[in-house]
């Protein structure tokens, strides 16, 4: 049994948050365990809660198209969320809920060991780009400890603001280049990002 399978059992048994009592299904994440690219969204929505799978609603359909634009299928990447249960009425996740799920996300990252972590939306961005504004740093990356962190708008943003669709599509097209570049750089030569500004490629 894989480490991720064991972790899924722990997530399914978790009752730390009140929202655990309200969920239909827990949504731990899915994809290949040795994925080079890990996408991290915000929280499950209605469709995800029903199916127990991340990004299966309208935003997920757009994400599938984005993946196809760079020659990938979701089975080739890993997709997760900052929290694993749906907040009531699709409200934003609370700081307590994010903190309660932090260990689960940390362990997913540790076990998958991706080359690129793509943050989708404000909440996953805040985890890796603290204090930054998504409108200013989307489409940019930083390198730290051998991992590229790449910030994007959440796919759902394009459903609410059509003018963001082209921006999101353009940002996605940058990912293959980042992946190619990090494979060429010896890990010991990768320095952590500067504290004052993002270390760009």
Supply database-style keywords.
single chain; 201 residues; alpha/beta; Uracil-DNA Glycosylase, subunit E; 6-stranded mixed β-sheet; 6 strands
Give a summary of the structure in a few sentences.
The chain has 201 residues and is of the alpha/beta class.
The gyration radius over C-alpha positions equals: 16 Å
Tally of discrete structural domains: 1
> What's the β-strand tally?
6
Average pLDDT taken over every residue: 90
Strand content: 5-15%
| Poorly predicted regions | 188-201
CATH second-level architecture: 3-Layer(aba) Sandwich
Biggest β-sheet: strands ordered side by side in the sheet: 1-3-2-4-6-5
The CATH H-level superfamily is Uracil-DNA glycosylase-like domain
Specify the helix fraction band.
40-55%
Order of helices and strands: HEEHHEHEHHEEHHH
């Amino acid at each position: 049994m894989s480490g991720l399978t064991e972790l899924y059992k722990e997530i399914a048994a978790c009752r730390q948050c009140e929202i655990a009592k309200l969920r239909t299904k827990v949504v731990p994440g899915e994809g290949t365990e040795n994925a080079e690219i890990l996408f991290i969204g915000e929280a499950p929505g209605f469709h995800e809660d029903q199916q127990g799978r991340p990004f299966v609603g309208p935003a997920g359909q757009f994400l599938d198209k984005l993946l196809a634009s760079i020659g990938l299928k979701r089975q080739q990447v890993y997709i997760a969320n900052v929290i694993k249960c749906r907040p009531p009425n699709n409200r934003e996740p609370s700081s307590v809920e994010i903190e309660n799920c932090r260990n689960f996300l940390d362990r997913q990252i540790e076990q998958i060991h991706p080359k690129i972590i793509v943050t989708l939306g404000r909440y996953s961005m805040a985890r890796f780009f603290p204090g930054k504004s998504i409108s200013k740093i989307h489409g940019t990356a930083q390198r730290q400890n051998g991992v590229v962190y790449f910030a994007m708008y959440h796919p759902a943003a394009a459903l609410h603001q059509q003018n963001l669709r082209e921006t999101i599509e353009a940002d996605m097209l940058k990912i293959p280049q980042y992946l190619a570049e990090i494979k060429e750089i010896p890990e010991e030569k990768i320095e952590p990002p500067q504290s004052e500004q993002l270390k760009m490629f």
